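Table S2 (text version). Query chain:
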Amino acid sequence: MAPNMASIAGVLRQTVQYHLNNFAYENALFFAERLQAHDPRSPESAYLLALCHLRLGDARSAYEVSRSSGYRGTNLGCAFVFAQACLELERYKDGITALEKSRPLWAAKSGLGKNTPIRIPYPDAAAASCLLGKLYRAYNNKDRAVPCFEEALAANPFMWDAFTILCDMAIPVRVPNIFKTNDSFSRSFLQELGTTTAQQNGGGTSLPPEPPTRKTTAQSVNAASDPFVSTHGSRNGSDTAQPPNDAAAVAFDTHVSRASHRLEPPQAPPRRTRAAQALDPGFSDAGLSIASAIGYRLGSKKRDRDQEPAADLSDTILKSSSLSLAATERKRTASGHPVQPRTANGEEPRRSARLNMPPRIASAKASSTAIITGTATTRELKKARPPISRIMRPGSSGSSVGRVVSGNRKPLPENIVEADSAELPRTKEPPPVEVPPPKPIELESAKVDEALRYILDLLKRMATGYQLASQFQCQEALNTYALLPRSHQDTPWVLAQMGRAQYEQASYVEAEKLFRRLRILAPTRLEDMEVYSTILWHLRKETDLSFLAHELVDAVWDSPQAWCALGNAWSLACDHDQALRCFKRATQLDPKFAYAYTLQGHEHVENEEYDKALTAYRHAISAEKRHYNAYYGIGRVYEKLGNYEKALSHYHSASMIHPTHAVLICCMGSVLQRQKQTSQALLYFTKATELAPRAPDVRLKKARALLGIGQLQAAQKELMMLKDLAPDRAQVHFLLGKLAKTLRDKKSAVRHFTIALSLDPKASLQIKEAIESLEEDDDGLDEFMMH
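Corresponding structure-token output:
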């Protein structure tokens, strides 16, 4: 069967709250994004997502997410988070407006002592194991950290950060064995979701019996808290007032009596039971009728907003149960109370319009209480409309009922005897509502199971994509992310992962599109912005990079991502000293930010400060063991220094971490080519072109190698492909000119040399020498023909 959307949202909400309660805010943010993608129109989704950002200290994102509902004051949670963010961002007027608009939603009284946001006062085993694993990992004890993360995932597959850390540590993980459900996992959500569903259905949903001591439905009568358990329960052996199947009876509105439903008393405080039974040992069916009527009114939906009259009701029960046996011969009402005399001004006490009583109450003639019955009387009672009784007037002493609980009822005529004075007056009687039958446990369990299967399948796809990306199988990761629903593909986390995968493949154009989309959806996101700035650096988009850098620095000036973006902007402008200052500032803000050390090393290489570059790269490796960019940087330094053996070794180390990086493979081929091993280098270049077929630098190196070993036709094919990929590259046209010169095509050679000269005037000396050598070859050929 198809998964229930409400159940899926309920499971996600509970997961977000679980991680918030266990201080796993990044996990909470991840699942809040899933909830927002699943139910984007719900203010509750926006509230939880904004709350996660606020807990992570990202007030700007909390402001943006909660602004839609918060500023208008339509949702109290969004308004409160929005106002908190405004306070931190110094946007005081917006926060004041939001709270003032949401003032009608505030609680009337203080909630101190009534809040229970954390169901379990201490973290569970999964949260504790995950935290212990993080501590061991920070302590560089990998052998002890890995089992802790495995235990956390075994106890709770929703511990997302435990899974991602294992992937980042290059630990082999079987994704299908982690993200799977079981009975105990389903029951943990079933109880909470069942309670929510019961509240939404007016208490019409029963819950599973586990744990046995918990009663969660409005229909089930708890024998321990039932004030009338001694009269109809099986604990004392007196069961005359209940039929054998009373345990399965469900209490609905008395209007359902027309559909042959039975009236059952809901739960009431035990102290009233002990008091009533102590005062009236002969408590019989008439007393049960009183308790049923009063208990039902207390169990109605008005109970939640009117709790104060409970003490007055207990006094009413005590007074009615302490009547003497002689007084019972007087005329009484259906609930056992004596009939109140008419007052001097002709008013009658308040009467109940609920006279269409169930058969069990109407057949209580065997008791000492007289009950008015008869078809004619019943019809007459239905038509009755008496004036307002003295119960509703202050100072009235004509009734034992103190205050209104359930609202006023329609009045009865003066000439009709009070039928049920124990019924509490109501302001307005709602129309009869047909209550649906309770849903079985199996139905609710099936909904939760389907929701869990849907969520776990979603997590399985995301986990598979993340695992493939951590192993740098980027294309396979992209194919996996493409299988996600569109709503989840357009979330910041998935877009960032897809953008990084394209970046690792050197597909900078596609990566830039994904990050641009990410900036539109989440303009306040800081994570992965250093990668986006590097992509813009590779694309030579100086204006876009400068705008991004200044926007990030103006928004959050103390973030390392912002200073990395600014450093890349200065680097693209060829101001390497300013770029170095920015990258050093990023490492001061976050000494564990490995990528900033790597960018710092690149700038030292541009300034030919090789010793400082090696120091920066080693700091990056110390911050992150699998940071292949730093190994690549060290290899590049040694290659410039002429130490090709060490360069090849570090390139190989980087390639072991990232085996599909075309640039690394090209670097190994370049080192071999410098060592005059062109044929072996060509193998690396060919492999690199297979991994990145649209990378111009890779094909350029392959074309040079083919020219070097004399494979002219293959070289011409590669150069023609390069001409289409990078028509503005001067080196491509220069190589085409040399190839035409070798093939004795002087006209094509001159054309390509001229295009190369116009594209790169700085290389004019080398290009002019090539043209002059072409003329010298022609002069030499003419002299040879003359002799």
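Notes on Table S2: The two ends are 93 Å apart (CA to CA). Residues 14 and 487 are 21 Å apart (CA to CA).
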